[in-house]
Amino acid sequence: MKTKKRSTNSKYYLAKQAIRLKSSEDGFTLSEVMVAIVIVGILSSVALPNYLNQVNRSRQNEAASTISQIQTTIASYADEFGVLPDSWAELNDTSAVMTDDGPATKDNFQAITLSGGYYDVKIEPVGNLFTITATRDEAPNLNIVACVNLTNGASGINKGTKTASASAPNCG
Fold first, then answer.
1. In this predicted model, what pLDDT tens digit does every residue of 143-156 receive, in sequence order?
2. CB-count exposure of residue 137 (10 Å: 0-12, 13-18, 19+)
């Protein structure tokens, strides 16, 4: 039996090859794309809130660390100079409190914005008791309240949570 050899130059053969090549191109179907979008959406809805919560807690911890430094600086200033500090500028004589514009240099304890721009910090002195408050407009519950009492040496720091603001610690 004789087999007929196909011509690879015929128009019919070339058209058939073109159709075969076109139909076998790599790509995704609409169904596959939709499934991928749904999976990404589900993962995002689970992971994104946890990520944002962790970012907020990191920013709060950074501000709390700075406030702890401020507590130490207040006590150091009083110990070194024998008087109570009256301003951010005076605290800079002991240790600089950094803002985005450099060291805090206000001649009072009005609010400053800490480096990074997330927390505003103010100090309220009443005699030998200094109360330090850090607030954040985007997350008001994630505030920080600290105090240092130069009479008895007591100090404390409280941080707010997602559901409740921080209360003043007892430095009495």
1. 999 999 999 999 99
2. exposed
